[in-house]
């Protein structure tokens, strides 16, 4: 069966995840070899973009190509690759005989991150406003809430602790407070009056008591990165779109400025915004529920087993005698799981001994960590604790899980990146001298005992973070402004100074000094 590019309708544009058969001359062969165009050396096309605006750009002739007929121009639409954040589809035939075995059950559609844009299938009515505990945030907070209630007619949710803020209450016994507090309280008198006029219109919730699932349409964060982490903690399943304003200290995850929040929020409410889907990790602790089965470890010659076999038996015990896939690979798991946006950290706590932690990947023993601990993080968390521990910084659109040791007692233990679809199991080594502590995004610190296991995999519920510009610009701006990534003095170019140094020994120091003054 053959087809021709000339037979393609003029209105046809590339769609996401669409594959183009390899062409010979003017015809396209879709024979059983399954060959597809690739885009190595910018010569072949991979249509996996999905960004609508880039389709028109891709139809323009490339450098050094003359305009031809309509069919030739249409051919060029399939020749130049449009902008895409996905990798090109790999060529599926290897040599004259080898190829990837087809399996219809494993075919999946992966949307290009560059095409991820926010849309509302019904108008958002409820908005959750999260603010950091800082007096400098009070004025922007009151201005935003006042505008959302009066202008946008939205139902605003706030944490109940906001109503308990002494700076926003007029019933505080000032005689019992310090002189500095009385001055600050008087300074915010106008802000307090505006808030008290809105107080009865606000809906409150309390963390740990109220369930916000399916109650919130939109989230606005005022503060630093911690406000976004807090929003992620509040929603342990589907998360509403999050718009984060920078009012903190670092602001790596907060790309918006509060100067013209009315215009920016209006654009988002109208659906004019790009999204970054920040993946989260689903973590669950499985406690040791029963004693070690005698059949797992023979009494005779038990001490002769290799350490790796001891670990494998320990893994079998933790999984109730099952050696196959442990846990559930879907996200319909027990309710004791928790979703984290940055990282889950296993450390030695107050113990003076090294942590001795075993790592299993999809049921296979990988290695043991001997050091202060281990960080399992998302790409979003790669710029947090993992970056301080020496891990690479990964763009949040990359599907991956980072495994980073904390001060390993080994010169060759480097951080690794594993596919996002795997499931990690972390347990205390049987011969470990101590237990470990585990925390989730810096919260819910608890002990991990011998026989317990921590299971980590990628959740199906990401955090839809709204971009101020786009996925690429926001991330690199955060690297430059928040972490001062790759900041150094520029190397001076070769100028007259280099010519003088190469001219001979008759040059004097005065001439060098004059050149320095000239450069200044």
Automatic annotation (TrEMBL):
Pfam families: NAD_kinase, NAD_kinase_C
Spans annotated as Disordered: 1-42
Keyword annotations of the record: Kinase, NAD, NADP, Transferase
Keyword Plastid: no
InterPro entries from the UniProt entry: ATP-NAD_kinase_N (IPR017438), ATP-NAD_kinase_PpnK-typ_C (IPR017437), NAD/diacylglycerol_kinase_sf (IPR016064), NADK (IPR002504)
Bias (Low complexity) ranges: 25-35
EC number: 2.7.1.23
Biased composition, class Polar residues, residue ranges: 1-16
Family stated for the protein in its record: Belongs to the NAD kinase family.
Protein name: NAD(+) kinase
